[in-house]
Amino acid sequence: MGEGKYIIIAGAGKVGWNLARELLEKGNEVTVIEDNRNRFATVEQELEHNIQYGDASELWVLERAGISRADMVIAVTGDDEDNMLICQVAKEKYLVDRIIARVNNPRNRSHFELLGIKPYVSATDLILRLLEHEVPEYGLVHLLDLPEERLEIIEMLLADDSRVAGQKVGELSMPEGSLLISILREGQGGFVPTPDTVLEAGDEVLAVLDPGLEEELKTFFGSDGASAG
Amino acid sequence: MLREGHEVSCLDEDPEAHARLEVNLDRSWEDTGGQFTVGTGLEEEALTAAGIERADAFIASTDGDNTNIVIAQIAKRKFNVPTVIARILDPLRAEWYEKQGVNTICPTRVAIEMLEKEVLEAAGSSTGTR
Question: For the segment B21-67, what is each residue's pLDDT rounded down to a tens digit?
């Protein structure tokens, strides 16, 4: 990004704060807007005059932050409605050239599109994409929790004595409420298994499941010596 | 509106809200002709289940301004509901969205006007008695 832009960031959470820091270091002018008093006080100690207290979805707050001269507005609060509307008024009322919105709940993506909010960034989508490459090492790892959707995605390494090693995927009786979605295998990368795929020790399996089934699944994919699930 | 012979469908994320609908009703909300769906206005499945596709009017009156503004626009742009009204407490935003073609009711503005009228009338009568 070129230097000397004026950027307004709505939300001083981890994303907003770090973004502000980076953008300031690169020589931009930044104002962060945060509506939580405690959070504001914490971040103000570092950002000083570069953060203002207020609700960024209120027009007077945006105006106080100088939105009419802003080159870019980035809405990264934890609330999707707020992010949508902050960007909508920035674009349509204050004619800000560039906007970026954060999507917290991937189900709201279509609403961002409906209101013409582009581009948007969804952490869930990013993680899903990363999943294809990054694989943690041992045990059951939570890759993604979607409490609203009541879904989790976990990853597990099949140990040498795993009870399912040598079994066909089609013959597995997975616990109800869980589904094997992918296998990552040394030398083969990740693939979606067919019913005829035979599981091997050392495979890393990805499963989607209802919350609360982790233990059951651990037992299911676990050592042969463990108690039957 | 139900009493006046319209068909009314309520959508609320709190299942308990149903009980509130039945206060002062002789029969159940459903028997009176009402419909109740649990869900939020941001879930399209919930809106569809509540019957938005055949609605003549849609009112967004949750306790959040931003939620109301968003779902009013969904009702209008996505489901083409002929009449859409959003409750917006913040007078500044109400004014701007009104100009953008979102029908709004701003209870804050209404209350201010009423209070102002009361104050002026009371002040007028007290100066009269002095």
Answer: 989 888 899 988 899 999 999 999 999 999 999 999 999 999 999 99
pTM of the model: 0.69
Interface confidence (ipTM) of the complex:
0.86
DSSP-derived secondary structure for A175-188: PTTEEEEEEEETTT
Tally C-beta pairs within 8 A across A and B: 40
Strands (DSSP E) contained in chain B are: 9-12, 35-38, 57-60, 83-87, 103-105
CA separation for the pair B16, B12 (Å, rounded): 9
**CATH entry 3.40.630.30 includes domain B39-129:** no
Q: Determine the 3-state secondary structure of A157 from DSSP.
A: strand
Average pLDDT over residues A61-65: 97
Cα separation, B57 vs B54, in Å, equals 9
Chain position carrying tokens 């100690």: A45
Q: Do A111 and B74 touch (CB under 8 A)?
A: yes
CA B67 – CA B59 distance, rounded (Å): 12
Assess B101–A contact: CB distance below 8 Å, yes or no.
no
Going along chain A from its start, the domains and CATH numbers come out as 6-123 (3.40.50.720), 133-221 (3.30.70.1450)
Question: B90 CB near a chain A CB, below 8 Å?
Answer: yes
CB atoms within 10 A of CB A98: 14
